[in-house]
Design a protein that fits this description.
- The protein has four helices and 22 strands.
- It is mainly β.
- The strands form five sheets. Strands 1, 2, 6, 7, 8, 9, 10 and 12 form an eight-stranded antiparallel beta sheet that branches. Strands 13, 14, 16, 17, 18, 19, 20 and 22 form an eight-stranded antiparallel beta sheet that branches. The chain has a two-stranded antiparallel ribbon with strand order 3-4.
- α3 packs parallel to α4.
- The protein starts with a helix and ends with a helix.
- The chain binds allantoate ion.
- Allantoate ion is lined by residues 39, 64-65, 67, 71, 74, 106.
- Allantoate ion binds at residues 39, 64-65, 67, 71, 74, 106.
- Belongs to the allantoicase family.
- GO terms for molecular function: allantoicase activity.
- This is Allantoate amidinohydrolase.
């Protein structure tokens, strides 16, 4: 019953929720200006997903009811409230979730979102105004220099549902093909919003990166993105490419226990479990490159780390990528990058060049774990390879080519995979 409910919920959710949150505080997203923050600060909008909005009936501050979101005072002057958010990872935006959890009777009735595409980040941070008056003239003048009034609209003025649990997610799909660095979130005329999730794919400026410098090519901050997976029961694989080390198990990739594990377990000469099934996650690198070292971190996974892992890689054109997504990544192009490795609990596994079996540039990788379990971080260190017009991977860096429709297919396929996984052995 619970599974059926989860499947129905997943079917109703938009596909863009599979992408990365480019504004979250953990990737460096921050609010640089808010017209008013009387009841609750706008910084709450960007809290990490693992900290869902709370409501504490008995919690009050000297300003009023404590709320876990951004809440302005009831406006008694002309205008509307708005704030400016600097994305932690500039990139292409595919959709928003404006979450109004627990704002009932004080939620913002209308919202719109504008995009800033700035070459130079502003050098100031302005504190939100808690006095209940309008932001000062000098604050507004500084913000006006950003041009926020004229920024293009990603979400036109739209009605918001209040924060009851069955309608608090207000999803907005976006069709905008420019790299976004900032957002202006407008509330009409005032009120509260608990969280803003900005789903997209990072776009790093690679011109400043030397081809002789090792970088984590799959990092979210460098434009890496998860394009498919077999199971994400407890944690999404995109968490593995997040910033720093994982805060806890929820900040990693964790699958359900596979039901096809043999009743009696056996190991081979290397001590690796002999099991019929495995779980997988595919990533596109932020830039094609030659991978020279790998980190697989099972931090926090102590009784539920995978027995072993291996990594495969390949180089795909956007057309080939679309085809792979349609066929659920069963393409024959995969080649072994890291042969099977026995894993340890709660441990940072480092693999050097000598242990890797591919020396050519790749654009996609597939992490395979057996039989199931959790991995908190995956780091793929390597050198970005120069892109020539004739190169196979020429368009891979232009994430504008990401085909959302094929991604939807992959997500639908994964839902099916979860069903298949419960009854059929791989
Ligand atoms: N009970 C309330 O939530 N009142 C007010 N909001 C807060 N946070 O106190 C309001 O009406 O805007």
């Amino acid at each position: 019953m619970a599974e059926r409910r989860a499947a129905a919920r997943a079917a109703a959710e938009p596909d863009f929720l599979q992408f990365n949150d480019l504004a979250c505080e953990t990737v460096g997203g921050r609010v640089i200006f808010a017209t008013n923050e009387w009841f609750a600060p706008a910084a709450n909008l960007l809290k990490v997903k693992q900290e869902p909005p709370q409501f504490i009936t008995s919690a009050f501050t000297e300003f009023g009811k404590w709320m876990d979101g951004w809440e302005t005072r009831r406006k008694r002057i002309p205008g509307h409230d708005w704030c400016i958010i600097q994305l932690g990872v500039p990139g292409l935006i595919y959709g928003f979730d404006v979450d109004t959890s627990f704002f009932t009777g004080n939620h913002s009735p209308y919202v719109s979102i504008q995009a800033g595409c700035l070459d130079e980040p502003p050098t100031f941070t302005l504190d939100g105004d808690r006095t209940g008056m309008a932001a000062s003239d000098s604050q507004l003048a500084a913000v006006a220099k950003l041009g926020s009034e004229v920024w293009p609209e990603l979400v036109p003025v739209s009605e918001l549902q209040p924060g009851y649990s069955d309608c608090c997610h207000n999803y907005f799909k976006v069709n905008f093909t420019h790299r976004v660095t900032h957002l202006r979130l407008n509330m009409y005329p005032d009120g509260g919003i608990s969280r803003l999730r900005v789903y997209g794919v990072g776009q790093r400026d690679w011109s400043s990166v030397s081809t002789r410098q090792d970088v984590d090519l799959v990092a979210l901050t460098n434009g890496g993105v998860c394009l498919g997976y077999s199971d994400a029961h407890f944690g999404h694989p995109r968490n593995m490419i997040g910033f720093g080390r994982a805060a806890n198990m929820a900040d990693g990739w964790e699958t359900a226990r596979r039901l096809d594990r043999p009743k009696e377990l056996k190991v081979d000469q290397r001590g690796i479990l002999q099991v019929p099934g495995w779980e997988w996650a595919v990533f596109r690198l932020g830039h094609p490159g030659v991978i020279s070292s790998i980190e697989v971190d099972t931090n926090h996974f102590k009784g539920n780390f995978p027995d072993s892992c291996r990594i495969e890689a390949c180089s795909l054109t956007p057309k080939e990528e679309a085809q792979c997504i349609r066929t659920r990544w069963e393409s024959g192009k995969w080649q072994v990058l890291l042969p099977p490795q026995k894993l340890r609990p709660h441990h940072r596994h480092l693999y050097s060049e000598a242990e890797l079996t591919l020396t050519r540039p790749v654009s996609h990788v597939r992490l395979i774990i057996a039989p199931d379990g959790g991995v908190s971080r995956l780091r793929l260190w390597g050198r970005p390879t120069p892109i020539t017009a004739s190169s196979d991977q020429s368009a891979d860096t232009s994430l504008q080519t990401l085909n959302l429709q094929t991604h939807i297919t992959a997500c639908a396929a994964n839902t099916e995979d979860v069903k298949v996984f419960n009854t059929v052995k791989k």
